[in-house]
Design goal:
By secondary structure, the chain is an alpha/beta fold. It has one domain (6-306): Rossmann fold. 44% of the residues lie in helices and 10% in strands. The chain contains eleven helices and seven strands. The strands form two sheets. A five-stranded parallel sheet has the order 1-2-3-7-6, sandwiched between helices. Strands 4-5 form a two-stranded antiparallel sheet. Strand 2 (140-145), helix 6 and strand 3 (168-174) form a beta-alpha-beta unit. Helix 1 runs antiparallel to helix 3 and helix 2 (46-53) runs parallel beside helix 8 (211-226). The model has no long low-confidence stretch (mean pLDDT 97). Bound molecules: thiamine diphosphate and magnesium ion.
C-alpha cells in the first residue's frame, strides 16, 4: 500500500464522519418535516466520494447523482450551504430552488448534481472536453450507480470519452441495487468495470468500504487521466446502509446481507486502523466526533436563521441573464 500522509488520512476520516452525521441529521429533519421534497442518503458509501475527491484539486470537476450530499461534502461544498439548500432557504447553494438532488457549488468545482440517472455522464464529457481544449491538466469525475450503468447515455458518454481521450474518471458506485433492483438481475457481468474493455479504456475495481483502497485506486486513475491518457472506469464495490429514499421498507434485501456490510462499514474501519497504527487514540477520535457535531449544529442553525427565497425572485437564476 502506498504511504498516505497523515493529514490526508485525518481529513478523509473527518469528511466521512461529517457526511455520516450530516445525513443522520438530515434524516431527522426530514422526518420532522423541516426538509421538504425527498432525500437519498449516502450512508455506508462515504469512502467512495471521500477516497476519490481526496485526489482532486479545486479546479477539477465532480458531477454528482440523485444521492449527492457525500459528493458535495467531499469536494468541499460548505455544509451550511448544503443544509440551507435542503431546507429550501435563500442562502442555499442553489438559492433554495433546487433541493437535495441538485446540490453543488461551481466555485469548488461541483456544478449542481443531476437527478436524472445517468444524465451526468454526457455532461462530464462536455466539461472534460472544455478542460482539454483549454490546455488544463484537470480532470472531471462522474459518479454514477450500478443502475445508471445500463442507461444508454452512459454507454454513449464512455465511448465518446474514450475516442476523444477525455480526462473523465467514471466512478461507478456499485451498491448492488438500483432502487430495489438487484444488480445481478440486470447484468450478466459480475463487474461493471469489465465493460471498460468494450470502450477501449482502462477499468479498475476497488473495495468501496475501504477509503484507503479507494484513495489508492483513484490516485492511479486520476494521475493517468491528468497525463492525457484518456478516461478510466473505476468501479467501487459498496453498499448503502439505509433505504433508497424516503419510505423504503427494504424488503428486497436480507438482514444477513445488511449485517455483512455493516461489519465492514468504512468509518469505523478507518478509526480502528488509526488506533491500531498508533496514529490516534480513541479519545482523539471522540474529539473529532465532537467537533463534527458542532459543525453540523452550526449548519442547522445557519439554515434555520436564513430566509426563504422571495416569491418575486422565483424566476431569477433560472434562465441565463
Ligand atoms: C432516467 C431516470 N430513470 C429513473 C429515475 C428514478 N430513479 C431515481 S434513483 C433510481 C435508481 C438508481 O440506481 P443506481 O444508479 O444504482 O443508483 P443508487 O440509487 O443505487 O445510488 C431510479 C430508478 C431517474 N431519476 N432517472
Ligand atoms: Mg445502485
Amino acid at each position: 500500500m502506498q504511504q498516505i500522509a497523515t493529514p490526508v488520512l485525518l481529513d478523509m476520516y473527518r469528511r466521512m464522519l461529517t457526511i455520516r452525521r450530516f445525513e443522520e441529521r438530515c434524516n431527522t429533519l426530514f422526518m420532522q418535516g423541516r426538509i421538504p421534497s425527498t432525500l437519498h442518503l449516502y450512508i455506508g458509501q462515504e469512502a467512495v466520494a471521500v477516497g476519490v475527491c481526496a485526489n482532486l484539486r479545486l479546479s477539477d470537476y465532480v458531477l454528482g447523482t440523485h444521492r449527492p450530499h457525500g459528493h458535495a461534502i467531499a469536494k468541499g461544498v460548505a455544509i451550511r450551504d448544503i443544509m440551507a439548500e435542503l431546507m429550501a432557504k435563500d442562502t442555499g447553494c442553489s438559492r433554495g430552488k433546487a433541493g437535495s438532488m441538485h446540490v453543488g457549488d461551481i466555485r469548488v468545482g461541483m456544478p449542481p448534481a443531476i437527478g436524472i440517472v445517468g444524465g451526468n455522464a454526457p455532461i462530464a464529457c462536455g466539461m472534460a472536453l472544455a478542460q482539454k481544449r483549454q490546455g488544463r491538466d484537470d480532470v472531471t469525475v462522474c459518479f454514477f450507480g450500478d443502475g445508471a450503468a445500463n442507461e444508454g447515455a452512459v454507454h454513449e458518454a464512455m465511448n465518446m470519452a474514450s475516442i476523444w481521450a477525455l480526462p473523465v474518471i467514471f466512478v461507478c458506485e456499485n451498491n448492488l441495487y438500483g432502487a430495489s433492483t438487484p444488480y445481478g438481475s440486470v447484468s450478466k457481468l459480475e463487474n461493471v468495470a469489465d465493460r471498460a474493455v468494450a470502450y477501449g479504456m482502462r477499468g479498475m475495481i476497488a473495495d468501496g468500504s475501504d477509503v484507503l483502497a479507494v484513495y489508492e485506486a483513484a490516485c492511479d486513475a486520476v494521475s493517468f487521466s491528468r497525463k492525457g491518457n484518456g478516461p478510466v472506469l473505476l468501479e467501487c464495490k459498496t453498499y448503502r446502509l439505509c433505504g433508497h429514499s424516503r419510505s423504503d421498507p427494504l424488503t428486497y434485501r436480507t438482514k444477513e446481507e445488511e449485517a455483512l456490510w455493516r461489519d465492514k462499514e468504512p468509518i469505523k474501519r478507518l478509526g480502528e486502523w488509526f488506533v491500531a497504527q498508533g496514529l490516534k487514540t480513541t479519545a482523539d477520535l471522540a474529539e473529532i466526533e465532537r467537533e463534527v457535531g458542532l459543525a453540523i449544529d452550526d449548519a442547522v442553525a445557519f439554515a434555520d436563521a436564513s430566509p426563504y427565497p422571495l416569491p418575486e425572485d422565483a424566476l431569477k437564476h433560472v434562465f441565463y441573464e
